[in-house]
Please model this.
Amino acid sequence: MCGIIGYLGGKPAKNILIDGLKKLEYRGYDSAGICVLEKGGFIINKKVGPVASLEKALKQEKIEGVIGIAHTRWATHGVPSERNAHPHFDCQHEITVVHNGIIENYQALKKILIKEGHQFSSETDSEVLAHLIEKFYRGNLETAVSKALALIEGSYGLVALSVKENKLVAARRSSPLLLGIGKHETFIASDIPALLKYTKRVVYLKDGDLAIIDAKGYKIKNLNGQKMDRQVEDVKMSAAQIEKKGFKHFMLKEVFEQPQSLNNLLSGRVKDNKIKLSVKVGPKDFEKIIIVACGTSWHSALIGKYLIEEIARIPVEVDYASEFRYRQPLIKLTDLIIAISQSGETADTLAALREAEKQGAKTLGIVNVVGSTMTREVGSGIYLHAGPEIGVASTKAFSSQVGALLLFALYLKQEKHEKLDPRLLADLKRLPAIVEQTLKVDKEVKKIALKFKNTDHFLYLGRGLNFPVALEGALKLKEISYIHAEGYPAAEIKHGPIALIDEKMPVVFIATKNDLSEKIISNMQEVKARGGKIIAVVDQDYGYIAKLADYLIKVPVVNKLFSPIVNVIPLQLLAYHIADRKGLNVDKPRNLAKSVTVE
Ligand code: AGP
Model:
């Protein structure tokens, strides 16, 4: 969950590295550091806080070196501090390393190195790498890195540099890394956005790869020194795609991008009254589905359970990936495991997937980030094509995940040779336009948000397909506004949460019309009777609800199966406007990072 950028070419590295770090800040932002090789020595700078602090500190520095590495950190081992910021060094400052991932056996290695006379200056696991590489260094960085990595347990995406050679050596195991191929220059980064300004030609490193970059270009080998062939691929994403496009925050831009992201998802997949998916599994290949995911992706998984069971009549279990991987799950050869992840790099979801694969189950990924680790490991998959999601709070990925699950449910029904309702498919094609219309609630929601910016608690209630929407609304609010919020199936309140209700408790009801509307109304009455403030998301026949609710948010009428995609929009906006009104850092909420690549 940290960001890496490295450069070797003909231009001064400093500005390229700083620029790359800014594009990677969404991966981690509690400290940042840079090291440039100049005149046979390292010029090192580290700063706590955002990349802007590092940039400011370096503004007046005339650094001409053309080789360098940089890192933006999200702390795992050791507090955010200059000492713990990367790049890390050996005692003589002859080797420097930036590292993403976790060195699991670092304590044992550190003990040995200290006995051998190495002095450590940070509390991080990553520093062990610099000392180990120095220990094995005999004039060849490539050999020293390979020898060091042979002793490492854990995950890494790393780049190393020696004062004695004009080269960069990078290696990957379970933490993403890719090369950017320019004209007489090579870049290395943990994510595409860092490179896009300079090149669109990239090489994705695979687990076990070692890349050696020098003035002549790059070579890729494995840790035994065998040459590996890796394709150069063209990135389709444009630099403009990752700008804010005039919105105050990435999150708001991404909420408003949902008509487009849903359009991307559906394009070419609903055609001639058929669902076209290039997945390698069909209903004959499995008896049960288990979906694993974390956070927001887990909420979309819960909606997926409702959709697949209702539409395709196939049983679905949903599990937190972090629980699944450690509870010795009962996986059968007749199970299909679906992993859902925006980033495709979430450590727990990857581990759950690997466990399922180890036990012989079929796998399917629902992933946004093209070329991510998950997409390379999974049996087959459905890409969301939602475009880069930079705001830490996931928004457009969620609606596209739900959309992808809906497509998959319909696909399974179709492959069971059951007829799909052509009206439903026509409505599905109109979904992006309906979402566009739904976004008009923004003004109203903003007004409501103003009233609640000083609230300490929120409850979100929904039923059926909209129960996970309640969970998602609550998660959005807590992660960006730091207001305590909980989501429940509405009927559950009388089993406990109702005790919390008084005039200080706002309760958001997702009350669009469905078979359970009557029941939701009686839950509303229970809240009203106890003085709770009601915010209701409604679509049609809401006359009686209007009498009970303090605030109404009207969304368009849609087929019940699409309602989570529409209903989540006011909740995303409510969380956004409350957080913005509170003056909080919406895109980079405290203690959170965009992709959680460690446990
Ligand atoms: C959502 O707003 C979160 N920040 C978080 O819960 C996220 O959904 C979770 O970490 C899973 O990420 P993934 O989809 O990239 O696997």
The pocket of 2-deoxy-2-amino glucitol-6-phosphate is lined by residues 294-297, 341-343, 346, 349, 392-394, 479, 592, 595-596 (CB under 6 Å). Residues 396-415 form the longest helix (20 residues). The chain has three domains: 3-240, 244-429, 439-587.
